[in-house]
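Q: Two folds, back to back.
A: First:
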Amino acid sequence: MPITVNLDVMMAKRRMPSGELASKIGLSQANLSILKTGKARAVRFSTLEAICKVLDCQPGDILEYSDDLMDADSIELDSNGEIGEHSNE
């Protein structure tokens, strides 16, 4: 997915542990972990707003778009065990 979640970076910059952030924004630690690891399929604007307010940051400090990231389906190993890009042609 071309969206990268940098929440852990911003939390480290603010020296805020996961438990404290989860408590302040009203999110369970499990759901915060899902968001931090980039496994979330969506995020509510109200949650994003709360995170930005508590961490004193902008949404772009937490979410990053890059179309340079390779899709996991396009990765395969060649005969030497090196990672190559798979073509669907």
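A: Second:
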Amino acid sequence: MQNPALNPHIVLAPVENGYLAYDSASEQVHELNPMAALIAELCDGSRSVEEIRGEVAPLLPEDKSSEVERWIDGATQAGLLIRDGSAASNHRELSAKELSDLAKRLRRGGKIRMAFRCQQTVVKLAADDADAWCYLGELAHIIGQRDDARVAYERYLTLEPDDAEVKHILVALRDEAPPSRASDECIQQLYERFSSFYEKNICDDLYTQAPDRIRELAQAALGDREALVLLDLGCGTGLAGVQLKPRAARMVGIDLSPEMVELARARNLYDQLEVAEITDWLRRSSDRFDLVAACDCLIYFGDLRQVLVPAVSRLNPGGAIVFTLECGDRYPFRLTDSGRYAHHPDHVREVAAEAGLLVVRLEEGYLRMEYGAEVTGLFAALKKA
């Protein structure tokens, strides 16, 4: 029988406590523990199975030496090894760039934990690569490794100290007292990066229901009223505006991101669009509206009084405010590890009562997907008494 050798399509990527064996032909990944990794290294085509067993046996319990041959047989069936005396070993140390590319392929294939382990090796090889640390933090966040995410983002900030978004996320990861809202710099940086693929991501990948919910909430609050004067807070690219436009006599959109406002402008939905921070705009404005909508905008605010109180002053009699939130189980709200705020329903009721608003509808339900899990939303329709 010919000597076992690593399949030429296999690349071994060293990770903590072993290897990832990546098959570039089938895009399958095998996880190898330290002993399996050692056997794979010895399978270079120059040794017989008996010779490999002889080298590994001293490291195994006396009754386990036969496991070496069993593992080699299994690895051959899985395509990890081949029996070809002419095959050369493909084992080599991958560069940081190659490992980084592998981590991204693994993530795209849904193998997030493997991608995380691979990225851990990347930052060891490229300790001064800010993007590598940021990506490690993101992967750690996805798999719920909060401490690893915190350490990675802290290292990233030493290299990129002006990243307001990561500073905001670290407040949550450090379990510090949250700020009253995400900073202007955080929102602007986030959506400067996000704007180019926002709609594909939020609609096609995350299956958001927020714009549809805004339409339903408007119907619940105002019935079939038409020719409304509408204000779309945090209008983004205009996804909620598309849902509201058929009922509008006039529609104003406000957003802090210049990039998102330009995308909304291309839709030709709004009679007026402005780049502004919404609470400042509400306090400065003298305009009156029949409906104020905030689609996935208030997730960047803690205490909702910041927005709802000035918004009430802009409502016509019988006007309504409708908005979507992420639902939280901690009263009144908490800053999540994603950098967004999750609100308790009792906080919405409390602020509504203080602002003189009647709760027409307040319900929980599916909002969107995030990292393969459903996000529970909180949907509110409040009407001016």
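Q: And?
A: The chain is about 45% helix and 25% strand.
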